[in-house]
Every structure is written in C-alpha cells, then in structure tokens.
Amino acid sequence: MPLIAWLLPEASRHMMETLHILLRKTGHFLEYAFLAFLLFRAFRGRENAFQFTWILCAALISLGYSALDEYLQTFTSARTGSFYDWLIDASGIACSLGILIRKHKKF
User: Fold this and answer.
1) pTM here?
2) Average pLDDT of the residues in 50-59
3) What is the per-residue pLDDT across 60-100, written as a single tens digit (0 to 9) for each?
4) DSSP line for 40-54
5) Number of structural domains, the chain?
6) Distance (Å, whole) CA 93 – CA 30
7) Residue 13 domain flag
8) Is residue 4 scored above 60 in pLDDT?
9) Tens of pLDDT along 11-41?
10) 74 within domain boundaries
11) Coil vs helix vs strand at 83
C-alpha cells in the first residue's frame, strides 16, 4: 500500500484500499494462470503434438495447489483462506488453459 500512496499521493484512503485489493486479486489470477501454463509446457516437453491429458493434468495440479494454498492460509493469523480467492485462481487457470486449447484446436 505504501507504493500506491507514493504513486498516487492525492488518492483517498478508500481508493488506495480498492487498488490494493485489485492488485492482489490480479496477482492471484496471473500467478495461477502462469503456473497452469508452465505445467502444461512441462508435460508437453518437446513434442509438437497436442494431448488433452496435458491440459487435464495441468488443471488438476494447479487447482489442487491453489486449494492447498487457500487452506494453509487459514492457519496463519495474518492471512485468511477464501473460497472466492480460490475461484479467482481457478479463473486464471481456466483462462490460461482455455487459450492453449483454442490455440491448438483444429478448425
């Protein structure tokens, strides 16, 4: 939040809190989108062919890791695990893998 205050010194406290939440949620989305993409690439290796199994494995591992992350946050006093955060993570995963499916889909 200090960075937001430094970049936008005229911003109200409410605006800074809103931007802070927006940046954190965007980070969740992008973090898990990138994780799913990297897992897909790891399963694919050097093959040029496309297998739906790679998408499925990347999705399941990413979703499981996200759920575990949210669950573990419930044990710390400074953080809270949230189903809504998990949905944001899942949206990033779905978006990333959806783009990969669309890219490799034969029309």
Assistant:
1) 0.84
2) 94
3) 999 999 999 999 999 998 888 899 999 999 999 999 999 99
4) HHHHHTT--S--HHH
5) 1
6) 9
7) no
8) yes
9) 777 887 888 889 889 999 999 999 999 999 9
10) yes
11) helix
**In the chain, alpha helices (H):** 2-7, 13-44, 52-73, 83-104
pLDDT at res. 107? 46
Answer left, alpha or beta for residue 45, where phi above 0 means left and psi between -120 and 50 means alpha.
left
* Residue among 79, 75, 76 nearest 28 (CA): 79
Q: Which amino acid is at 100?
A: L
Q: In one letter, which amino acid is 24?
A: R
Q: Would you say 85 and 28 are in contact if contact means Cβ atoms under 8 Å apart?
A: yes
Q: Position 84: which residue type? A: Y
Domain for residue 98, yes or no? yes
Those residues with Cβ within 8 angstroms of residue 47's Cβ, 6 or more apart along the chain or in another chain: none
Short-list 88, 35, 30, CA closest to 61: 35
34 within 8 A of 22, measured Cβ to Cβ: no
Residue 17, domain member (yes or no): no
1: CB partners within 8 A, 6+ apart: 16, 17, 20
